Amino acid sequence: MRYRKRILKEMISAIEKNETVQKNTDLRKAIAELYKAWKFDATAKTIRNCFKRGGFSNQTDDSDSDDEDAIMADLKEKWKTVEGNGRITDDATLSDILEVGTELLTASYPTGEEILKSLMDNNRGQENEDVLQPKPHRTEMLQSFETIKRGFQMEENVPDSIFSSLIKCENFYENLTSRNAKQCKTTEFFK
């Protein structure tokens, strides 16, 4: 309502300047007026009202409806000025101004069927995905380094930097695992 009040003020200003009054506002102007409404008109009370109307708060403030009534009365008065001037010729009403955009979809919620389909699609996709692999054992990792080094040794034109990088990786892993080493349980030998 505060945004629409600003738009009506703009219409009245145009009438007073003997300019053409436009019922529709371009996007740039709308953004500018929304910014001003937020920056200058929105108070903590306004925000509390929004949360209350959205069902997020059960606090009541008796003066809330008084503010809304005052804004609505002011809007009606300003509309009389605009309408009475005769500059709006397309039979626009105050309701047209106040309710503009109320039909626009601002959020959508999935239907039960859409949720069910999504779940079924996810389940189908999971059947085809690989199962998470367990962490490889230390000996498996060290054997892998040896296998990779042996494989590169059998290839031609492999730069020495590859071998030194592999050795650095192997040394890093050995140091990492030796610091985290703990005493083995007898049950680990039977795996």
From TrEMBL:
Molecular-function GO terms, alphabetical: nucleic acid binding
Cited Pfam families: DDE_1
Domain DDE-1 positions: 2-51
Entry superkingdom: Eukaryota
InterPro entries: DDE_SF_endonuclease_dom
Protein name, entry field: DDE-1 domain-containing protein
